[in-house]
Specification:
single chain, about 220 residues, alpha+beta, seven-stranded antiparallel sheet, 11 strands, binds N-oxalylglycine, binds manganese (II) ion
Length: about 220
């Protein structure tokens, strides 16, 4: 993907960033349908589909010594991204634009971005949880980009976002191709309903910097 494409898309990106920032400010979550270029979505889809299943690992909960695989909480498989493939490299470049765009608008001090592919085989789910680990968590904004071109009602795998205190359902989000959800990581319990068809996504987190002093982020 050429840089000129990105530059010609900048005015539109500004408007979309205004929408994301406005949604995060107003309700704490927002779904975009037209953020990333179709060429990038297609390249990510080809890449994730071409990946050997052996490259995915059962996802766990917690970090470092707290890490554990728990079949009652989540049964998806993940592959952390480094941006070394052209498609994932371009994805990271877009997330960098979004990081700086959101910092200009919301003054959150978003410092970096981590992300992984997630593959939910048929029958997989992720029960209600928060995206922040206890203690010194750096995650501020969660993102999920869906890569399911043929998703239809009945395929399952909807993301359900709950109100923090009352447990009321705020939103049920279908994992449709190219749709991307942003939400405040520590504010919303959420779950992925059982999938009836394999489901793919890129899940990531904009994080603040906790590296002042002696603290370093625990390995994942
Ligand atoms: C997660 C998560 C939501 C989704 O991976 O933490 O909540 O819709 N994913 O995939
Ligand atoms: Mn989550």
């Amino acid at each position: 993907m050429s840089e000129s494409f990105a530059i010609s898309a900048l005015p539109a990106l500004d408007a979309v960033l205004d929408g994301i920032a406005g949604g995060l400010e107003a309700t704490g979550y927002v779904v975009t349908r037209d953020l990333l270029p179709p060429e990038l979505l297609d390249a990510l889809l080809v890449h994730v589909r071409s990946m050997d299943e052996a490259k995915f690992k059962r996802a766990g909960i917690g970090r470092e010594t707290d890490f554990q695989v728990n079949n009652f909480i989540r049964t998806d498989q993940i592959h952390w991204l480094e941006g070394t493939h052209p498609a994932t490299g371009e994805y990271f470049a877009w997330m960098e634009r979004i990081r700086t765009g959101l910092n200009q608008r919301l003054f959150l001090g978003l410092f970096d971005y981590e992300c992984h592919y997630a593959w939910y085989p048929e029958g997989a789910f992720y029960r209600v949880h928060l995206d922040t680990f206890q203690g010194t968590d750096r995650r501020l904004i969660s993102t999920v980009l869906y890569l399911n071109p043929d998703w239809q009602t009945g395929d399952g795998g909807e993301l359900v976002i709950y109100e923090h205190d009352q447990g009321r359902i705020l939103e049920t989000i279908e994992p449709r191709f190219g749709h991307m959800v942003f939400f405040l990581s520590g504010e919303f319990p959420h779950e992925v309903l059982k999938v009836n068809m394999p489901r793919y996504s890129v899940t990531g987190w904009f994080r603040k910097n906790n590296s002042l002093g002696q603290e370093i982020d625990p390995v994942r």
